[in-house]
Amino acid sequence: MAAHRGVHQTVGLVPTMGALHQGHLSLVKRSKAYSDITVVSIFVNPAQFNNAADLARYPRTLDEDCALLEAAGVDYVFVPDVKEMYPEPAVLKFDFGTLETTLEGEFRPGHFNGVGIIVSKLFHIIHPSQVYFGQKDLQQVAVIKRLIRDLSFDLEIIVVPTLREEDGLAMSSRNTLLSDEARKLSPIIYRSLSLAKDELLKGVKWFDVKKQIEAAYQAEPRLRLEYFELVQSDTMEIAHALNDYDTYAICAACYIGGIRLIDNLIVA
């Protein structure tokens, strides 16, 4: 990429773990509109999985992915193997503060350390001018922002809104793992987020909103709600009420038929 940067072309990076869908392609579209050169990386990063079974069943569709990216006009696709990215086991440990103790950080210990390591490696290898992430992974976005700021990476992070199915389900590679029954249940996540947002903006106290939502999940034995929280969207700190100065998000993680899905909605 140095040759492109040398002639003042900007390089946009879209980091992915493959199993691409229209949500990924929306990141590609934004990169092609904003950056001169678009690079998509495909790497299922073992360092960010704290569950070996989850890593093993993560969908891998490389041939289909490359065909989609070629049709989308991507300039480069970077598909390293594990030995290339980790010639030796990584021993470095990041400390992202409270980001590692709440929500995804609490329920997936070590996850964000693995994210920080692989994203740092990609930044050093590709030297992007811009990097594109989806809003669905809001806490990951906060981690990457901290990484860029604290390590002085010379690049811009661009966050693209979540793309959804017609019934509201956030597009995710994991959706392909849902059974037909689980897929029919899955819109409850978006519906519950939307209901909670509406209630909050009407002035209902968060404690009462959360209690109502948790009761709805508990009434359906095929669902297991892991968390449903109001947070400050920049810091991901748990909040209990809205004020006029901060931006908030409602974040949820839920197991449906054994498949873990996450989603969020920004609260204006």
Q: What's the short story on this structure?
A:
The chain is of the alpha/beta class.
Note down, in words, how this protein is organized.
It is built from eleven helices and eight strands. By secondary structure, it is α/β, with parallel strands linked by helices. Helix 8 links the parallel strand 4 and strand 5 (156-160).
Strand content: 15-25%
Largest sheet: 5 strands, parallel
Helix/strand-derived class? Answer: alpha/beta
CATH level 1 class label of the largest domain: Alpha Beta
- Mean pLDDT across every amino acid position: 95
Taking pLDDT < 50 over at least 5 consecutive residues as the criterion, the unreliable ranges are none
CATH architecture of the largest domain: 3-Layer(aba) Sandwich
How many structurally independent domains?
2
Question: What fraction, in percent, of the residue positions are helical?
Answer: 25-40%
Alpha carbon gap, first and last residue:
38 Å
> Shape, please?
globular
The radius of gyration is 19 Å
**Assembly level:** single chain
The CATH topology of the largest domain comes to: Rossmann fold
Q: Which SSEs are present, and which pair or pack?
A:
Blueprint: H1 2-6, E1 11-16, H2 22-34, E2 37-42, H3 52-57, H4 62-71, E3 76-78, H5 82-85, H6 104-107, H7 111-126, E4 130-134, H8 138-151, E5 156-160, H9 180-185, H10 188-201, H11 206-218, E6 223-232, E7 248-256, E8 259-267
Parallel strand pairs: 1-2, 1-4, 2-3, 4-5
Antiparallel strand pairs: 6-7, 7-8
Helix pairs in contact: 7-8, 10-11
